Automatic annotation (TrEMBL), chains A, B:
Keywords: Hydrolase, Metal-binding. One of its GO terms (molecular function) is hydrolase activity. Its cofactor is Co(2+); Mn(2+). It catalyses: a 2'-deoxyribonucleoside 5'-phosphate + H2O = a 2'-deoxyribonucleoside + phosphate. InterPro entries: HD/PDEase_dom, HD_domain, YfbR/HDDC2. Pfam families: HD_3. This is 5'-deoxynucleotidase. It comes from Psychromarinibacter halotolerans. Residues 37-119 form the HD/PDEase domain. The keyword Transmembrane helix does not apply. Homodimer. It comes from the Bacteria. The keyword Hydrolase applies. SMART domains: HDc.
Length: 198, 198
């Protein structure tokens, strides 16, 4: 690489990293445990990476936890353009998928080509939720919010019509697919909190 | 592992993960690029992990980037008890180190013993800044704030007496030790912004 190629590569990388700062202003439905404010998608990303590292022993032997952490590092960056869509809200899934694909084009497109393609492939793999790494990453991503909501006395569920049946479908299915031990641990706590027979 | 050992292991892991939520309320001196508010240490941790992944080609061949990312994932957790200390402020370093060691004891101590010891060893390695992984992690951790401050027109430097000489010592030394290419790129921009001969 010449000095000028080196400099333009770094210019592009830093442009992407500066744009990524905006993920700190994308708010999610889930509040912090202390109820002081809503969680943003950047700190959420940090927290689910910590969940993945701590709960790595819940993954099958074929899961490579460092790839899972990389997926979770990148997984919400598209929200800078496409916003966050609460799982208990109603959303036009096709429109949301199109918006996220356009966001991935623009945002990863700020990077040098090799990194654009590598990051996009990892994000596509996460979204497709087919490989063991992606299935575990999705399970972890879904596990953090109900744990937070239980710890915060259900504050994040207010305003949504949350039932055990809905949690089984929207949270239980992806968690039990990638980390069945976590769902076995969580579900009785959800049932008790919601006052519904587990 | 028996079912009850499995459950108490998971109880301990989730207790740690819930306590970690408080890192989202530890504020740093650096504002977001848009100046809307100060950055917190959880979203900062996410951002420096992204810096490490994107700028991995600035590391020497002996650096294992996934270990760097794990270090950065854990590096600020002690601030939950010990607070953040701006590099341009004045601080009693011995008292700060003692407070951080006590914080590491308490916080990592929430985890099962094997994870407590593994996380503590990784955090100790980062703090000691001697291994290639730790030296690169420190360089990346120091690179993000001046990039943010330049992009935000120096907002984060107001109220501190920031000079190129101080930046050379507090930022330039750790960055150039772990990632000399980043410092060669950054220093002329800092000199131009501060209006000082580079
Ligand atoms: Ca830091």
């Amino acid at each position: 690489m010449t000095a000028s190629e080196f400099t333009s590569r770094l210019d592009a990388q830093v442009a992407f990293l500066k744009e990524a700062d905006r993920l700190k202003s994308i708010l999610r439905a889930t509040p912090l445990i202390d109820g002081s404010r809503k969680e943003n998608s950047a700190e959420h990303s940090w927290h689910v990476m910590l969940y993945a590292l701590v709960l790595a022993d819940q993954a099958g032997p074929e899961v490579r936890i460092d790839r899972v952490i990389r997926m979770l590092l990148l997984h919400d960056i598209v929200e800078i353009d496409a916003g966050d869509h609460p799982i208990h809200g109603n959303v036009d899934h096709a429109a949301q998928e199109a918006a996220e694909a356009a966001a991935a084009d623009r945002l990863f497109g700020l990077l040098p080509d090799d990194q654009r393609d590598g990051f996009r492939a990892l994000w596509d793999e996460f979204e497709a939720a087919e490989t063991p790494d992606a299935v575990f990453a999705k399970a972890i991503d879904r596990f953090q919010s109900p744990v937070t909501n239980l710890a915060g006395n259900g504050l994040g569920w207010r305003g949504y019509d949350v039932t055990l049946e809905k949690l089984d479908a929207r949270v239980g299915r992806p968690i039990s697919r990638g980390a069945p031990g976590l769902w076995a641990w969580l579900r009785p706590k959800l049932a008790a909190f919601l006052g519904q027979p587990g």
